[in-house]
Fold:
Amino acid sequence: MSRLGDLIRLERTRQGLTHKQVARKCGVSDKYLMEVEAGTRIIADDQARRILKSMGMTEHTEADFTLDDIAATVDLQSAVPQLTRAAEAKKAPAKQEKPEVVAESDPGVAGSIWLDALSGVLKHVPIYNAVMKEVGHRLLPITNGKIEGAAPDKVFYFMAPDNDLRGFRVQRGDLLLVVPAQAAVDGAIMLLQTPQGRILRKVKRVNDYQAMLQKYDEAFESEIKNFNELTFVGRCVRLEAELT
Structure:
């Protein structure tokens, strides 16, 4: 199944257009369009953009997103039946008291799915190294307006600068997704700000005013610090490692 074909089908269904109407707009045959939607014909990203633009879509400012990125993130298969029912409801006779319609506020189908995806479903999450220089990004889905329960613009990846947590399965170069946390989370791997820079440590609460910072490279090491000596930046909730 072609994800770009699904995206074209979704927008065509949303607008209640037939294959012939879209084919006439973009200068292709309706057979070609049906094959693209069915996934039996491969279509390039630029050709998909041309077809979508012919249906009235306008590109948004996030030029780095590809249609394939969006199609991979949005649940196209589940959205199409909703749009089909909405189109049928619009054509229903006026005497029907409560036709089944899709609410305009439904972020999954309202408006252009391309624009919806760019603005509320997909986010460029930055990757920072030890000196907080951005060295890349990852595309992550936004669920109910959040990523891992945090505001999308507050999360980031931190690249492990050393093997201090190798005993906890975190090695140099691994990426850890960080969400904001200003207090110690017992048992969590956390990012801390120190005079020497940002470091990763596993944290164990000792009591109401102290925490044990653990590292484990060649040997296990720990130190106990008062909370007033520590500055917590965030909690690591996800690990991405390269297989070697």
In short: The domain at 3-99 is CATH 1.10.260.40 (434 Repressor (Amino-terminal Domain)). The first strand starts at residue 122 and ends at 128.
